[in-house]
Design brief:
This protein is of the alpha/beta class. Helices cover 43% and strands 23% of the residues. It binds zinc ion (ZN). The site of zinc ion has 5 residues, from loops. This is ROK family protein.
Length: 384
């Protein structure tokens, strides 16, 4: 038993040192020793092992304060890779991400919304094999794959409980996809994947409490509390699309009336716009808005109001330091941010308002893929 404990502790120390180099590189052995409070001898041994395994490399010599030379260390980005997948009603995106969160390649495909579950799983497998081959990544360096998708996801058991957009119910995505790809597979709700990307490399980097709001074909949010994704009892925390804002309102696909998503999804905006003008796409609404057509100004003004109300409610519940706006609507219409902020100014409770920052995600359309790949690394990486 004692031997087991020692092995475990060695592994923990090694992981800790590697994480430190990853976060603080370039860094010297002396600095690592100071930060970890481990002896210089132990650090030299651990770093040696990490170099041997290919995780760490020496970069350059620097002169430290008293004229002594110190060699700096950095991690090797290409020591391992993960695959991130974003699946939506009409789009399939696949990306390869390296150990330090760098996107090596990102490929986007149109998905037929009528495609069956089996066809989609087969499609993901084919595209994953393609991207690995095209980038000449040795399969042994790929530690796993993760999929981010909209809906209620039982991420612990690898089951998609409900994904209305994909018309899936209780499908064993992890089991089926790992069988086909021979890779370890992780799945989660797309916004929960996205906030992991924001927390690792984006606008909420190292934040302990932030909320990501996604506005596009639906509306939802992901909540980061104490540095962890807040999941709730069955991983549905943050699904604000089905908060009821008018019990006598529009009928929702969930069967209730007046859900938020019936007011501020792309479909809802387009349906309202069609009452005013003969148009066929959400992009035409944005063009009309920029041309100053009053019906488009009114519809998007009302949309901004509903988004501001949702944000104000979230802020009152969780008091985050930052709210990140993301998704197709805000990516295509960045000027909406100012409108939303003005409305928040009006609706948000003063004590909460003064500390809150509202920002636009900088990850654009690759946020889910990147977050999924990072999550795959977080859950599947084992230093041995
Ligand atoms: Zn609903």
């Amino acid at each position: 038993m004692e031997k087991q404990d020692q092995i475990l502790m060695k592994k923990q120390n090694k992981t800790y040192v590697l994480e430190l180099i990853k976060n603080m590189a370039p860094i010297s052995r002396m600095q690592i020793s100071k930060n970890t409070k481990m002896s210089p001898t132990s650090i030299t041994r651990i770093v040696g092992e990490l170099q041997e395994q290919g995780f760490v490399k020496e970069t350059k010599l620097v002169t430290s304060g008293v004229g002594r030379k110190a060699t700096l260390l950095d991690v090797c980005g290409d020591v391992l890779f993960t695959i991130g997948v974003e699946l939506d009603k009409a789009v399939l995106k696949i990306g390869i991400v390296n150990y330090v969160g760098g996107m090596i390649d990102l490929q986007t495909y149109v998905r037929n919304p009528l495609e069956s579950y089996e066809e989609t799983v087969q499609n993901i497998n084919d595209k994953v094999k393609n991207i690995i081959e095209q980038n000449a990544i040795p399969v042994g360096k790929i530690i796993g794959l993760a999929v981010g998708l909209p809906g209620s996801i039982d991420y612990e058991n690898g089951i998609v409980r409900v994904a209305e957009q994909l018309r899936w119910k209780d499908v064993h995505l992890v089991r089926d996809l790992s069988k086909l790809t021979s890779l370890n597979v992780v799945i989660d709700n797309e916004l929960k994947m996205k906030i992991i990307a924001e927390n690792t490399v984006g606008k909420a980097k190292d934040s302990k409490s932030s909320i990501l709001v996604g506005i596009g074909s639906g509306i939802g949010s992901a909540i980061l509390l104490n540095g962890e994704v807040h999941r709730g009892e069955s991983n549905n925390a943050g699904e604000i699309g089905h908060t009821v804002i008018d019990p006598n309102g529009n009928v929702c696909s969930c069967g209730k009336f007046g859900c938020l998503c019936t007011y501020i999804s792309e479909g809802a905006i387009l349906a309202d716009a069609k009452k005013m003008k003969d148009i066929s796409s959400i992009d035409e609404v944005f063009v009309a808005f920029r041309d100053g057509e009053s019906w488009a100004l009114n519809i998007l003004d009302r949309t901004a109001t509903y988004i501001a109300l949702a944000i104000s409610n979230l802020a009152c519940l969780y008091e985050p330091e930052c709210i990140i706006l993301s998704g197709n609507l805000i990516d295509k219409m960045p000027e909406m941010k100012q409108q939303i902020e003005e409305k928040c100014e009006r609706y948000m409770w003063e004590p909460i308002k003064k500390n809150l920052h509202i920002v636009h995600s900088s990850l654009g359309s690759q946020g889910v893929v990147l977050g999924a790949a990072i999550q795959a690394q977080n859950s599947l990486f084992d230093i041995n």
